[in-house]
Amino acid sequence: MVENKDFNAFARRIIRAYGRRVAEGDVDALPELIQLSASVDEAITNAVKGLRSFGYSWSEIADRIGMTRQAAQQRWGKAIPSQRDPNTDT
Predict the structure, then answer these.
(1) Contact at 8 Å (CB) between 52 and 83?
(2) Distance, CA of 33 to CA of 37 (rounded, Å)
(3) Model pTM?
(4) What are phi and psi of 85, to 5 degrees?
(5) Residue 47 to residue 53: CA distance in whole angstroms
(6) Are the beta carbons of 60 and 26 closer than 8 angstroms?
(7) Per-residue pLDDT of the chain (90 residues; tens, 9 = 90+)
């Protein structure tokens, strides 16, 4: 099994290499590179949704990414069905 740090580093290397390829004149690949941003956003939403389904609170998720509970809930809460009372979710 690939460790998360190694997998993350691998993904970052691929994306940076893709950016260099586009920068070296592959203008037709620019829209596809931009689409990666939407794919990353979707992956993050799915990750947060999964963490919430495992019982992680908005506070626990927010602490790991350096934002407030309220900011995390505002960013991803609409995409994720409520599983707890937001007034008591700490």
Answers:
(1) yes
(2) 7
(3) 0.76
(4) -70, 120
(5) 10
(6) no
(7) 669 999 999 999 999 999 999 999 999 999 999 999 999 999 999 999 999 999 999 999 999 999 999 999 999 998 776 655 555 555
